Amino acid sequence: MSSAVPLPLDHGHLQKLVTADLVRPDHLLGAHPTTEGGVEGVRFAVWAPHAHHVSVVGDFNGWNGFDNAMQRLDFGYWGVFVPSARRGQRYKFRITSAQGQTEDKMDPYGTFFEVRPATGSIIWTEPFDWTDQDWMQARTSGLDEPVSIYECHAPSWMRADDGWFLNYRDLAHRLGEYVVFMGYTHVELLGVMEHPFDGSWGYQVTGYYAPTSRMGSPEDFKYLINHLHGLGIGVILDWVPGHFPTDPAGLARFDGTPLYEYADPRKGFHHDWNTFIFDYGRNEVVMFLIGSALKWLQDYHLDGLRVDAVASMLYLDFSRTEWVPNIHGGRENLEAIAFLKRLNEVVHHMAPGCMIVAEESSAFPGVTTPAPFGLGFDYKWAMGWMNDTLAYFEKDPIYRRHVHHNLTFYNMYRLGEHYVLALSHDEVVHLKKSLVAKQPGDWYAQRAGYRAFLTMMWSTPGKKLLFMGQDFAQPTEWNHDQALPWHLADHPDHRGVMTLMRDLNALYRSRRDWYAGDRQDTSLLWLSADDADHSVYAYARRDEASGAWSLIVANLTPVYREGYRVGVPQGGTYRMLLSTDDGQYGGFGTQQPDLRAHEPGWHNQTHHLCLNLPPNSALVLEAVPEEGAAPAQPGGTA
Asked: Where are the transmembrane segments (predicted)?
């Protein structure tokens, strides 16, 4: 529902929808304030091919289903112009099925809705004076740039004094200030598209074209994006094209028959989530979803979409015992694959500079290979890295020697895709504990291990994502019904982890060896990957273009190791960039008596450092340039 003049409801434009040639169907369907024959009103249009009768009901006709009957148009569409309808009035489509059952339905293309539990659509236009033109022209998908994402569930990030949700405008200033303070480059918002049930966290969507009204109007949401852009912060939105809820007011059996969903429940219903699965074989459904993506990226100036549950879309047997093979007898959903390729091609053409990220948990090949040869995403969540790393850090240190290569295995496949290393909301709910609480030992050991974990994550190739609350070591699981326990951020134990995260983000953004060339085989070189008996790791990050490199050494047991030898490629002095054992982070403050490299060589390097390795710690060092000396580059196992 744009303030622009809507497309005409003629045969040609409707045919473009049917043939998948109209990628902004919301310019044709939905509710559009307009003028016809010199009369102001609202034109309504909806897709309901199997309906016997459709009318629009709302505040403008006393919710009377006989006053504004809609005319059946070509290809199963319906339309009507209502002179008495105005911006701000509520409405629904009253649809009578071929079997005579009548249901009031939300507008699939509605851009504003009543606050739940009410489900009425609201006639709306979205005028807004954007001031982010420079940002929009300069934005990129960030392949060779630092990308550090703060994942945020806006309704529970912070609450107003009365316990209600913050308005998007209040959120803009508070969230923006915090993200700038912490040094993240992007915010990823979940729970924004309109949804009926708070407990779904926004992942069971009824309004694919509307920000939730819990936190304000569409203009308020635009203010949030515009303000964050003004602060230099990109904004990514979680987007859910894999399934939708069974709520009777929504898309489910929209015209009395399976319309947006597959008719066969073996393809069209998720038993795990009690949701319907979109029918990717229908052009009208494909256009509905692609139009939604473009709505957020074009009209709301979002910088990217994180596409939820891609694996559930790719495989017909996903979490099923009974399923229908494709035409070749295989398990891949060929229609969903074609949809994802088309989505990424269209989005990259019509919203240049945006990043599209797949939450994809399988080994499906070519997720970030450009379409048509691959799916065409910019990034894929590194689910394997996440599972292996959490499994390692959750284990009692005495047993870590047996799973030592959990932390090195990612390097075996990291060149295959463009990855985001993600520690998301999914890892801190459903009795999984918070990230710091997953660490074994007492409170001091948990924080020490967690600081080392974060430092290894931030110094590993791949973009970064961390869920809110985890950057100040929230000790409890996330609760979507409550604001984060912000009072803890003033406690020294939690403030120490927050300070570390600020410094990690600053290092990450300032060092090309930490963010450029994530898919270069020499961007991470293992100096010591096999010291399982001591659970010590040593690796170098390197940027070929600039020659910059840094050394990371991690001791992941609660044992102090004095004078531990680490190979380095040159003699001279080294500088400590970061030690997670520093007192400012909540550590003991272990000193390093000698940061000069000496012969003989070690770890296949020409020199070595003797380092004191604090328990459960990570150190980051770099060589100090010496006048007249040529900088040496580390060798090692890529």
From this structure: none
